Amino acid sequence: VLCCLLVAFLLTVNHSDQVSVQAENVTDILDEQNENVLEALKSESENILGLKNESYYELECDCGIGSIYCHYNTYGVKICDCRTDYAQNNDKCERCYCGWYATSCAFKYNKKVCTCPENYLLNDYYEKCVGQDPSIDRVAPVKHFC
């Protein structure tokens, strides 16, 4: 009986070594395939980005005096990052100020749009956000906008 157990033990050890060797070979093959795929993707992306493509050039990007940074998004649309009190109007940064109390200033269809916080009003004459008591700010009559 002891002899049978010893033979069975040796057979299982040999079989498990064989399985682990086969498993190592499979993982080596998979690792090699992954490396090949990654290398191909890297090469392709470098060509797309222009790192290896000699015909690649970067589009000139200028948003004017009030800009901090200019770039094109993935759709080719020009994006201007503008300084404080400036906003993008078409493809340039333009002065955009809606007063001390404004939460934002932007352009929509070439017209300045001011966003005022709750309890503040937009004064159309001065295009600024003012308190609800216009006499305090000494401005023309206000119109409810926000």
Automatic annotation (TrEMBL):
The keyword Signal applies. This is Uncharacterized protein. Residues 1-16 form the signal peptide. Keywords: Signal.
